[in-house]
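Quick one: structure tokens for this chain, please?
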Amino acid sequence: MHASEFDEQDFFHAIAASGVRALLIGRRALIALGLPVLTRDYDFWIHADDAAAFNAALVPLGLYPNRSPEEARAVGRYVLENDEKVDVLVARTVATRDGVRVAFADVWERRRSIQVVPGTSVALPSMDDLILTKRFGGRPKDAEDIRMLEALRGKADP
């Protein structure tokens, strides 16, 4: 692993410019929505066919995959890393801990765009879908994140 001069603006711009169907999920999505949480990594759910393009977009930033696109599709996930870490979900469908099946294609259809840095937007799942993605893990911090998302959703409802 080599140190890089990671720039978040360049990171999000590279993803946006790549044309990859990429959804920001995890705590970085909550941060993009203005919620006060901390995280050290980035989490994306991308279309399974877009892994090579996603990887190629991030190589200039010094981020390298730990699996080939074929291997990633076989296991459903992989990591891009150097001194930053990007967890990438490539499964076409993922089940929540309580058995609800969530399909990337459906979540992609309902996505919303949010500006994360000046002039650059990222795709996020709809609020309901983001809550579903937080149910994939079932960790205590996911339950807390869901509570915050539900409170935020309640503020947005008329």
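The chain has one domain: 8-150.
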